[in-house]
Amino acid sequence: MAERATFTLEEENYEFLVKKGGKNRSAFINRLLKEEKKRLLAKKLLEANKEEAQDQNYLKEISDWDETLLDGLEES
After folding, report:
1. pLDDT tens, 18-64?
2. 25: CB partners within 8 A, 6+ apart
3. Domain ranges for the chain
């Protein structure tokens, strides 16, 4: 479902929107917002990965699981 929004832009930003958004400014703004959401998610994932990489207890547990991953399985 689409929602309507009213907001005020600085003149320079409005001119950019008119120039780059073409006839469908709403689609342009929606695309920008989706890209920003993806960028923020990627940033959060990177931060979480960095945090994991510094967690020695977590790294030890992962290492233990890696060692037991193939226990009891024959190589073919």
Report:
1. 999 999 999 999 999 999 999 999 999 999 999 999 999 999 998 88
2. 17, 18
3. 11-66
CA neighbours closer than 13 Å in the CB half-sphere of residue 24:
5
| pTM to 2 decimal places | 0.69
Task: Please report, as a single letter, which amino acid is at residue 31.
Answer: R
**Whole-Å CA distances, 58 to 39, 51, 52, 69:** 26, 10, 7, 16
Residues 6+ apart with CB under 8 A from 53: 59
- Helix (H), strand (E), coil (C) string for the chain: CCCCCCCCCCHHHHHHHHHHHCCCHHHHHHHHHHHHHHHHHHHHHHHHHHHHHHCHHHHHHHHHHHHHCCCCCCCC
- Residues comprising the chain, all counted: 76
Torsion of CA 49, 54, 58, 63, to 10 degrees: 90
